[in-house]
TrEMBL record:
Residues 164-305 form the Acyl-CoA thioesterase-like C-terminal domain. It comes from Streptomyces prunicolor. Keywords: Hydrolase. Residues 54-133 form the Acyl-CoA thioesterase-like N-terminal HotDog domain. Residues 1-34 are annotated as: Disordered. It comes from the Bacteria. Residues 16-34 have a biased composition (Basic and acidic residues). The keyword Hydrolase applies. This is Acyl-CoA thioesterase II.
Amino acid sequence: MKETGSAAQPAGMDHAPSDRPAEQAEGHPPDLDGLFDLHRWSPSGFRAVGPNIGTARLFGGQAVAQALCAAGRTVPEGFRANSLHAHFLRSGETPGAVEYRVEIVRNGTTFATRRVAAVQQGTELLQLTASFHRPEPGLTHQTAVLDVPDPESLPTPEESLPDARGREWYRGIRARFPFDMRFVGAPPGVAAGTTAPPRHGVWFRAREPLGADPLLHACTLALVSDLFLLAAALPPHGLRMGTPGMLAVSLDHAVWFHDRAFRGDDWFFCAQEGSWAGGGRALCRSTVFDRRGTLVATVAQEGLIRVGPQSAR
């Protein structure tokens, strides 16, 4: 991580909005088709011309998802995303166009590999490596089990949030992200002051139909995979995102895509857990299921968490 000057921002990107008032998220959330409709200005160069998800800083999940989209537009037909690994280098700003520069690393018979740099105003924000696999038959099993209430049986966030502060928090989320949500247990952005286990769960569903392109559904999952994840490390410490004097940003992010039939416009569940925290960092994981209980993805993320005076360093 490189920092220059007293006002330098640490490496990393904004992630789940937490304690920001709804009025900072103006208008309606961008539609997913618009987010992933990248302008191709060269065979391996793309530019995001639509709106950015974010307040002052670009949401890291958007950069990851758009980089995956750019990479996927350069692979042969019939290949599906099977993994991505991203490192956040600098904070992106909103508004501001982001360019995605794709390097073709490998085109194999069954696997294709791409490397992507996300650049804003000449500054590299993110480096991402993505792997694509041509589907083939193979062994099948999973050990993870989905054991939560169906989304239809849960109250909407507007119905379940207990106070005005919580409802304001969710209005900010809804204004930025084009997803329906149902929380299992306490929502990750409002619980604070008491300690709790480092885990929470959220059902997600895109509000609009996404069509048949499997890349669009994979990018939708990549976008959501960064939402609320780092917040899972905070409950044991009685903290929440947006706690005064706390800095929390994503450092690196990985997604493994398991199920090629996944759809982001049907309900899917993210079981998020803060596995470890120490030395200013935290490691969080997420297992993602479709509503039938099929494990569709596994996510891991390391984040920087600073509390108190060191948060300004």
